[in-house]
Amino acid sequence: MSFPLISIIIPTYERETILCESIASVLQQDYPYFEVLVVDQTRQHQPDTEAYLQEMDAVGKIRWLRVNWASLPGARNYGVRRSVGEIVLFLDDDVQLPPGFLAAHARNYDRPEVGAVAGRVFDRMKLAGTEPGYAIEDLPPEAMDAGIAWYHIDLVHTVKPQQVLTARGCNMSFRKTLFTQHDIWFDERFRGSAVREESDFCLHIRKTGMIIWYDPDAHLVHLGEESGGCHDISTRSLQYQISFYHNHFLMALKNLTPWQACRLAASLFDCHVLGHPPCYKSGSPIKVLTRGIFYGIGLLDALMTQVRGLWDAGQVYTQQDKLDPPTKPLRILVVSHTYIVDLNCEKLRSLAQLEPGTEVVVVVPKRWRPGGVQKGTIEPRSWQEGSFRVVPVSNWSENHQGLLCFGAELVTLLQQFRPQVIQVEQGSRSLAYAQLIVLNRLLKLNAKLLFFTWWNLPYKLKPPVSWLEQFNLRYTSGIISGNQDGAEILRHHGYEGKIQVMPQLGVDEARFCPQPQHQLAAQLGIQPDQFVVGYVGRFVPEKGLLTLCDALAEIHPEFNWKWLLVGRGDLRPTLQEKAQKAGIADRLIWVESVPHAEIPNYLNLMHTLVLPSETSQDFKTLTSAGWKEQFGHVLIEAMACRVPVIGSDSGEIPYVIDDSGLTFPEGDAAALHDRLTQLMAQPELTRSLAQKGYDRAMLHYTNLALAKQQLAFYRQLE
Questions:
Q1: Beta carbons of 194 and 246 less than 8 angstroms apart
Q2: How does residue 84 score in pLDDT terms, banded at 50, 70 and 90?
Q3: What pLDDT is recorded for position 125?
Q4: DSSP letter for each residue of 606-651
Q5: Which pLDDT belongs to residue 516?
Q6: For a disulfide at 192, which of 243, 330, 482, 520, Cβ 3.0-4.6 Å?
Q7: Strand ranges, E, within 629-671
């Protein structure tokens, strides 16, 4: 099965909480490549809805498109023109999606003859009127007869895949080429609830030779909210009744033969005017007469619409839409030693897949000695996946970020690739960045230049290093800083351009996710009723482990807990001795030298992860002194596993956690004790923070979320 990029378009009008829930349902899909476009025709939302949509748009989860008119077919066309996917999928704003929904739509497009997919709709109102278990295998032949099909197509109870005449507007997808190559668009003359606009569109598809395939596995729940949506675009009044008949007759006049149109008119009169089955309307003479008048007015109105269409195609909102020229695909060059590890490339791989035509090339050193726990020299491989590739280039300096620079192969690569964006992730004082600035000018690439930095401590520079930084900042188009402090420091150093605060690497939600670990818990001697306080990282003083030990030592005996420490470091003997004196040594579980791929197993044993980092002045470099937490990547890994987090206020930690966990003043054991006791004593708080942390990680910190933020930042620099 292939995985085409799917553009999900949700037209909405006057919907509030249910709209947010529908969007959340879409964002929970595990399909790898999709975008969400919300075409919003609401004049003013409630504050909570407004805030939710703004946040989703700001972090790139959705594209929130606001228009000042109300037309369902107009909104569909508006969204299509701004979509980038190979497949366009339309949803209503009051739906719930099951797992695998997008994949069920996508798999049908492996067949070249399929131009559209009609999904099954569990319609709350229609299901209420049928017996439980009622199902249809094959639709009757009449369901393919355009004159009378509309009374025989049942996409609620049909359980067998098959070709159909039309889809339902709340759950239908199409190849983008139907719009771009075949020039088929939704007719914006369909009014009000726009009934039959999707049928009109589908009848045009049949003229291309492509088929509309019904897949019951591509199902959703349609809630049928009584307020908002189509109901309020044109209320159930005189205007609604006339537009209902108008739309039926307009479809017939545009697409049907005279005989088919007569049969449709007869069926429409029999069902909706006389009230015969399946409509079951009142047979009161007054009501029949009233409906008959609406029927006649609707017919005349449709005839007038069709006549006006001789000189006016009716695409009123499309004509008003002066769409900006489509954004051009970007060629992006990223330079960093970080990406010698394949797993670290996931964000950039996602970046290459966000927009068709985008290319990402990553330059890494041919040889690098990371130091620390990673002994020896790494020689990364050259590899490519679609429009993403990693290119090792000969380098000087194999273990110093600032002194790293590259050989003549880089010039050849730049001449061939000609990037439009160059991002060097070695800090503000790196030779590699200065090298790229010079080559950008000499080769006349005119690329936008950016660098990434983690540095979050004040520093003073002397020549020639100060000259190097001033040169780099002068030719910088934008900066990505891993933390708030880093951005503020660069402002103090005179940079006045755009800065985006976001981490360098995201969390892999497929790897870091909730997974029960009963067997591992048993191996480590953890009982089901024990509250596990966890720590993952280096065993060093600046990580605040001594403060955490003091806080745990004061936990009331009524609580049954364990302290799980995953990592390694020289502080272990000191910490062991301190725990022994406090009488809690038997509660400690040490797990050393765990590969990163196995960290999720241990995170899923924890009831809370604590990162009690403390700012220290014990570290010195040539230009600065001290250390404080630059980000705390383990926090977002724990949040992705639905583990509630507690962190000190050192460095970036409180910004990472925000209101999705608990924080305390660094070094304050009493405050940390209070936070731990809150979680141990309040299971509901623990569950609530676990969910809030998970939502925050999925919204802000996945590789895809970061890729979208990074691409949006590049676009700001154009």
A1: no
A2: confident
A3: 65
A4: -SEEEE----EEEEE-SS-EEE--S--HHHHHHHHTT--EEEESST
A5: 92
A6: 243
A7: 645-648, 662-664
User: 504: which DSSP letter?
Assistant: S
For the residues 174-186, what does the mean pLDDT come to?
Answer: 94
Pairing of the two strands 388-393 and 359-365: parallel
The greatest distance separating any two alpha carbons of the chain, rounded to the nearest whole angstrom, comes to 96
Q: What is the side-by-side order of every strand in the sheet holding 531-538?
A: 588-592, 561-568, 531-538, 608-611, 645-648, 662-664
Contact 430, 402 (CB under 8 A): yes
Asked, as a colleague might, if the bond just before 464 is cis with ω within 30 of 0, I would say yes
Comparing CA positions, the residue from 604, 545, 549, 587 lying closest to residue 569 is 545
- Model pLDDT, residue 148: 87
Q: What are phi and psi of 569, to 5 degrees?
A: 160, 165
What span, in angstroms and rounded, lies between the C-alpha atoms of 159 and 217? 9
Report the candidate in 200, 175, 323, 179 with the shortest Cα–Cα distance to residue 251: 200
Using only C-alpha atoms, the chain has a radius of gyration, in whole angstroms, of 31
Question: How is residue 368 written in tokens?
Answer: 């690098």
With 90 as the cut, is the pLDDT of residue 311 above it? no
Token digits of residue 353: 């897949």
CB 489 within 8 A of CB 455: yes
Give the tokens for residue 96: 């719930």
E-assigned strands of 371-432? 383-385, 388-393, 395-396, 405-406, 421-424
pTM, rounded to two decimals: 0.62
Residue 166: alpha-carbon gap to chain centroid:
30
Q: How far is CA 229 from the centre of its chain?
A: 24
Token reading at 85: 């996917």
Q: State pLDDT tens for residues 195-249.
A: 899 999 999 998 999 999 999 999 999 987 666 565 444 445 677 788 888 988 8
572 contacts: CB under 8 Å, gap ≥ 6: 539, 590
Alpha-carbon separation of residue 691 from 330, 395, 483, 640, 684 (angstroms): 36, 45, 24, 9, 11
Number of C-beta neighbours around residue 494 at 10 A: 10
In degrees and rounded to multiples of 5, residue 487 shows phi and psi of -65, -45
> Which among 239, 165, 147, 241 is positioned nearest to 206, based on CA atoms?
165
Helices 545-553 and 669-681: crossing angle, nearest 10°?
60
Q: What is the 3-state secondary structure (H, E, C) of 41-72?
A: CCCCCCHHHHHHHHHHHHCCCCEEEECCCCCH
The encoded tokens of residue 110 equal 């492996």
Q: Is 270 exposed, middle or buried (0-12, 13-18, 19+ CB in 10 A)?
A: middle
**Would you say residue 134 has pLDDT above 70?**
yes
Which residue spans within 298-367 are E strands per DSSP?
Answer: 331-335, 359-365
Residue whose entry in the numeric block shows the structure tokens 């039926």: 248
**384/361 Cα distance (integer angstroms):** 9
pLDDT exceeds 60 at position 663:
yes
218 CB neighbour count, 10 Å cutoff: 28
Residue 332: predicted pLDDT: 97
Is the distance from CB of 440 to CB of 449 less than 8 angstroms?
yes
Whether 135 has a pLDDT exceeding 50, the answer reads yes
Would you tell me the crossing angle of helices 431-442 and 465-474 to the nearest 10 degrees? 50
